[in-house]
Specification:
The protein is of the alpha+beta class. It folds into 3 domains: about 160 residues, Beta-Lactamase; about 80 residues, Signal transduction histidine kinase, dimerisation/phosphotransfer (DHp) domain (Helix Hairpins, Orthogonal Bundle), CATH 1.10.287.130; about 160 residues, Heat Shock Protein 90. About 50% of the residues lie in helices and about 20% in strands. The protein contains 9 helices and 13 strands. The strands form 3 sheets. It has a 6-stranded mixed β-sheet. Strand 12 and strand 13 form a beta hairpin. The radius of gyration is 49 Å and the shape is rod-shaped. The protein starts with a helix and ends in a 10-residue tail after the last strand.
Length: about 450
């Protein structure tokens, strides 16, 4: 069942159509039975009229003592009724113009069906009042039924024609009744992934309150689970900072005191320093990730000079740019956005840091800021190794690195940089897209900030 509305509409319409058809059929049958009675009564009235008036029509007098003595005459027919006036022997006294000269049926009183002149007829046979002759009155069945249907069908057709109209009414009423479901779905669809607030069930119908209650229970459990995860990550990162700092100092002292040590010892010290540096970077990234989470953000947005922030971050990373002989250019407009300075600059550090790490020696990096009608555009473009299109959706997952720890470029990382970027983008209600670089190879990270951003990333 793909749609409750379609299912209910088809079911109700089918049942209604079946009941309407049964009622129409029953009404048609009952109407035909009643029409049969009325037509028989009409035939009886016509036969009584013939019995009373026919002798007078034949000889100019209303009452005739001996009808058997009258000459045979042919009379004009009318009202779809044909008649024969016969002697008891079957000899014709008079008839309508469509009747044959010979009797069309046995002279026995009552109604019966007969065939002549290529048609089926309904006949009434009755002895005259004086008992000296017989009348046969006949009406064609097709004309009889046509006349009956012309009276009955106009009352049946509206019942059948009402079915599609009723279907539209049912469809509309179900749409009205299911509006709370659509409103609930729209509320859930428009929420940020991190928005775990309970659903408001006060205005929901009783059938949906149970569903909303179950959903709220699930949301509460999810929120508690995520909160435990965040607390654990933040607490672990904080607890690790102090021993890591002590280890770094001890490692630096060891490297200074063992300057005349063997090459193997010095190589081990270098590896230890690199490992501690990577672990320290991981701790810092976890703390930043927790701070810029949309559901944990407690600050307030303010106007930010985005282009000026880009300049500051470039200046911070000038040593890394120089050590790799990278050319970097900042092009475009002076732009401003509503946001959080710490989050924006954390995002810029991760974007530029990735571009520096994955761009080969002597490569190029271009940062573009544009104030467009759709919003403020930020692009970080490099001519490095790039990311394969089929992997671009995965790089925003936490701890995911293209190629894993054995990355072909040899660059180190913890797999949290683009996760932080994505959280900052979500916090500001922006859009992010990974494209092919315009510098021949590499990657272009495009972010579009909306014109106006409210707290929590909702425009």
């Amino acid at each position: 069942m793909k749609s409750i509305r379609v299912f209910l509409t088809l079911t109700l319409l089918s049942v209604t159509a079946l009941l309407n058809f049964a009622a129409a059929l029953r009404g048609y049958q009952q109407g035909m039975v009643e029409a049969e009675v009325l037509f028989n009564q009409r035939m009886q009235q016509h036969l009584d009229l013939l019995n009373y008036s026919l002798p007078g029509l034949l000889d100019g007098e209303r009452h005739v003592a001996d009808p058997s003595a009258l000459p045979t005459k042919v009379l004009a027919s009318g009202n779809h009724l044909e008649f024969q006036w016969l002697r008891p022997t079957g000899e014709l006294i008079a008839r309508s113009d469509r009747m044959p000269d010979k009797p069309v049926t046995a002279l026995e009183s009552g109604y019966r069906s007969i065939n002549f002149a290529g048609y089926r007829w309904h006949a009434l046979i009755e002895r005259s009042q004086d008992g000296k002759s017989w009348f046969v009155l006949a009406e064609r069945d097709d004309q009889r039924w046509r006349l009956a249907e012309s009276v009955i069908l106009p009352s049946v057709y509206p019942m059948l024609l009402a079915v599609p109209v009723l279907g539209l009414i049912i469809w509309w009423l179900l749409g009205v009744g299911l509006r709370p479901v659509a409103a609930l779905a729209k509320d859930l669809e428009q929420r940020q992934a991190s928005d775990l607030r309970p659903l408001v069930a006060d205005n929901l119908p009783g059938e949906l309150r149970q569903l909303a209650g179950s959903a709220n229970s699930l949301l509460r459990r999810l929120e508690a689970s995520f909160a435990r995860e965040r607390r654990f990550s933040a607490d672990a990162a904080h607890e690790l900072r102090t021993p890591l700092a002590a280890l770094r100092i001890q490692c630096d002292n060891l490297a200074f005191n063992e300057s005349d040590a063997s090459p193997e010892t010095q190589a081990g010290i270098v590896k230890l320093q690199a490992g501690l540096e990577r672990l320290g970077h991981l701790v810092d990234q976890i703390l930043i990730l927790n701070r810029v989470a949309p559901d944990q953000y407690m600050g307030r947005f303010e106007p930010i000079a985005l282009t000026a922030s880009v300049r500051r971050v470039i200046a911070e990373q000038s040593d890394d740019l120089e050590s790799r002989s990278l050319d970097i250019e900042l092009v475009g407009d002076e732009t401003h956005v509503q946001g959080d300075v710490f989050s924006i600059e954390s995002m810029l550090r991760n974007l530029l840091g990735n571009a520096i790490k994955y761009t080969p020696m002597g490569g190029n990096i271009r940062v573009r800021t544009v104030d467009s009608p759709d919003g403020v555009l930020l692009e970080v473009i490099d001519n490095g190794v790039g990311i394969a299109p089929e992997l671009r959706d995965r790089v925003f997952d936490r701890f995911y690195r293209v190629g894993g720890d054995r990355n072909d470029t040899g660059a180190t990382g913890c797999g949290l940089g683009l996760s932080i970027v994505k959280q900052v983008v979500d916090l500001h209600g922006a859009r992010i897209e990974l494209r092919d670089s315009e510098l021949g190879k590499g990657l272009c990270v495009r972010i579009v900030f909306p014109k106006s951003v409210q707290q929590g990333g909702r425009a």
